[in-house]
């Protein structure tokens, strides 16, 4: 029963994400569709931050659901709409991003989710570094986990240890 509820929540989350992605398109008079969102990768970044926030809460079920949303966002990216430098990095990281998102969504083992999040963060960093984010993004580092993550907030909230060591870490880079 528990697995059915998790599976249902994951499917609903993916459907809602797909609807949100579709909401970013408009119909032109000629009947063709054009993407309004100039930054194809913003939904990927937003979903990454949702996964991070779920890990901060140490909520493995929520983390799994948010990773499923991230997977939907990754598959919705239209490579031909990416800027040249983004496209180059996207081609290098998309397989790993997809594998990490699948891995995190497929388990409710918090330890495994956090371990995979290390790789997800590294590849998301490589991508966000070339895409000139609208707001500053902070690369943060935890020496205890020997791992980085990205945050929209300067204040440290550690996704690798949650409430047990919430403020362990520091800002190592500001991406603008």
UniProtKB/TrEMBL annotation:
Keywords: Signal. It comes from the Bacteria. Residues 44-134 form the DUF3347 domain. Residues 1-23 form the signal peptide. This is DUF3347 domain-containing protein.
């Amino acid at each position: 029963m528990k697995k059915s509820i998790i599976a249902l929540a994951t499917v609903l989350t993916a459907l809602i994400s797909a609807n949100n992605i579709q909401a970013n398109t408009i119909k032109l008079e000629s009947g063709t569709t054009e993407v309004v969102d100039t930054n194809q990768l913003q939904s990927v970044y937003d979903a990454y931050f949702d996964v991070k926030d779920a890990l901060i809460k140490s909520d493995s079920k929520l983390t799994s659901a948010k990773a499923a949303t991230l997977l939907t966002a990754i598959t919705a990216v239209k490579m031909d709409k990416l800027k040249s430098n983004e496209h180059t990095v996207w081609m290098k990281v998309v397989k790993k991003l997809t594998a990490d998102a699948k891995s995190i969504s497929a388990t409710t083992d918090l330890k495994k989710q956090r371990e995979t999040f290390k790789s997800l963060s590294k590849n998301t960093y490589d991508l966000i570094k070339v895409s000139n984010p609208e707001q500053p993004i902070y690369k943060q580092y935890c020496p205890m986990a020997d791992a980085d993550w990205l945050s929209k907030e300067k204040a440290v909230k550690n996704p690798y240890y949650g409430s047990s060591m919430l403020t362990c870490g520091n800002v190592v880079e500001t991406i603008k």
